[in-house]
Amino acid sequence: MAHVALAAPLLMSGGADRTDRAGLDALTLGEDAASAMGIDLTRLRILLVLGLAALWRGDRRGGGD
Asked: Domain limits of the chain?
């Protein structure tokens, strides 16, 4: 069951990435352009922070060095 706990953050962050791929693509043009395209920047930032935190937490659970 430990392998499920290790894989869960990675799976969740991958799902968040897929749902906001258009937002991330628009963000490459800049914040003003993304906002003009109707992208909710606050929501996108929150999802990015949560996704990165989940990845970092999953990495730290690995029990390496």
From this structure: 17-60
